[in-house]
Amino acid sequence: MGNTQQRPILITGGGRRIGLAIAHHFLNLHQPVIVSYRNEYPSIEGLRKAGAVCIQADFSTDEGILAFAENVKSTTSGLRALIHNASAWLAEKPGTSLSDTLSGMLQIHVNAPYLLNHALLDLLRGHGHAAADIIHFTDYVVERGSDKHIAYAASKAALDNMTRSFARKLAPEVKVNAIAPAMILFNESDDAEYRQQALNKSLMKIAPGEKEVIDLIDYLLTSCYVTGRTFAVDGGRPLR
């Protein structure tokens, strides 16, 4: 991936946390990167200085999604990979509209990947056998559900299923896989009690950090055979 002439990797939600770490990983390899972001964090300017193309986008409407796709197409004639990292985490709670919660989760986790995969298809195809990738970020709760985040879990389950459908549609030119993480890293505001409770939920008892996910992405991009699969990065949490 050291060739600067390579097609760029597109990462949605690249301004924070795992998305930001993925972007810097590839930039450090001199791999061209395009990121979407909704709000102008200081990290976005850091990405620009490192060489990333940063495109502001609002995925809360279909129009915003498609406008972002047009901006991407005006920036590059091909994509090496499309990594769907953009996400939101809304809970069902008193005083909030259940319909709004469900539609919001479906919009970001289902509509956005669905529309972008179709809109950017010509940038992914035409480069040879297994020459491009789509990676969906789902969640370990797809397996077990969630009593406090029902809409979130359902939307991620839909995205998980969509992984297999797009794998069937786009093979053998484009591989399509999903990554289903549980606890990867903490927020700075998480207190010691919460952190210990979270660690106790997995068999491995650690928050492994972004590298665990990045190493898996590197593997998926390198493979010429693996498609239509979901890879759990959860420390054995469903087995607890």
Description:
The termini are far apart. The protein has 240 residues and is an alpha/beta fold. It is 45% helix and 14% strand. Helix 2 links the parallel strand 2 and strand 3 (53-56). The chain has a seven-stranded parallel beta sheet with strand order 3-2-1-4-5-6-7, with helices on both faces.
Summarize this structure as a short list of keywords or feature phrases.
240 residues, alpha/beta, 7-stranded parallel beta sheet
Architecture blueprint of SSEs:
Layout: E1 9-11, H1 17-28, E2 33-37, H2 42-50, E3 53-56, H3 62-75, E4 81-84, H4 98-119, H5 121-124, E5 132-137, H6 141-144, H7 150-170, E6 174-181, H8 192-199, H9 210-222, E7 230-233
Helix pairs in contact: 1-9, 3-4, 4-7
